[in-house]
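Box S2. Input/output pair 1.
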Amino acid sequence: MSNAPPQPFAGDFSYDFYLRLLRSSRERFALAPLRDYVPPAQRDAPRLYVRHDIDVCLDAALSLAELEASIGVAATYMFIPTSTLYDVASANGRARLRRIQELGHEVAIHFDVATSGIADPEDRETLVRRIDEQCAGLSEITGSPVRSVSFHRPLPIFLKGPDRIGNRVNAYSATLMEYYCSDSAGRWRSGNPLDHLPGSAARVAQLLTHPIWWGAEHRPPAQRLEAFFQAQVDGFDPDNCRNYDVLLRETVPGVVRAGANPVN
């Protein structure tokens, strides 16, 4: 018997595949957003927490939220208030966040240390204060408290931490990372999730996806990112195209869009 680790999987980023994964997982787990986190010892049924980090595109987030709502799944959608690629406070951003919440999902914070003026990430008091400040802005948009937090491109010090940061559920807590299945960088590192997630014996698990990779038809992540880039820069002059390309590379460093020039 081979002890080789599973090969990363990026073979299907279609909505049909995602629905199959949710339906299969629901046979084993109760599916829930992070706001409903309860320590495993305090409940009986195994639970899978469904989370989405919105790194790039609000429209992609809304499309996935509508898909999940169509089969009765509520998830956590985590937004970066300091994003350089979208603006949650714009009329477009506010409308999408509110619609996602109306569909029954949780609107929460995807906190980016790099764009939040944090000089020392280990300064917990300042960290919590900045998170609180940004959550206040999200709450003003949605009219609801922000109950959960994840970190954009998390530093090692944030991984497998406490269950809560401040008074919010920590997506990177040790408990929630015990069985952690993610499509980060446009691939499932542990192989096809249909092969292992629905049959897992874990009592608590977390499923993380990034809506930018998903669509009605499968497309490789580099192609999906290229299509997004071209749509965003339509009508831009060359300098603004280059600037947007830099922002996209900084936000999603794990995937190079199909039409990008090599970086020396």
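Box S3. Input/output pair 2.
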Amino acid sequence: MSSLLRKLIKEVIEDKKITFDNWKVPLEDKLKLEFQREHESKGNDFFDSEEDFINAVKNADIITVTNEDDKLIDYRSRTTDKEDLLDLISTYRSWKQGFRTKETFNAIYDGFMNNLPMELPIVIEFADGDRRVFSGNTRMDAAFHLGIEPKVLLVKSDRGSY
């Protein structure tokens, strides 16, 4: 990221507090896709079935994650800025497969800055109280970069831990 762009982002954050209040629950088709990508294909065992996952999402609480709360969520990248996050996600399999692109990445930042609808990230809370990001790590990092405390779906799993 150029120093000029970093300066501009810093000025926007400092001069005009970005307010974002357009979180939305992902549609069921998107939840099924996330289940396939984040649960099935990665061999996770957080839920017995896709149906159990969908039901857990329907019963989830929507919570605001502060910087302090974020420290207690495992599997988070906590990048320092947009360039650092881009460097990270460009190594993801989804980037190589064309699911994520620089355009979709920039659309997240644009969405926050223009208060466009944004799907809630999903954080799993296990029976022992441990928490782990399931989907939406990039959205969470981008929100924090812009001075926004992200909201997430806190989905309960009856598993002891991951």
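Caption for Box S3: The two ends are 35 Å apart (CA to CA). The mean pLDDT is 90.
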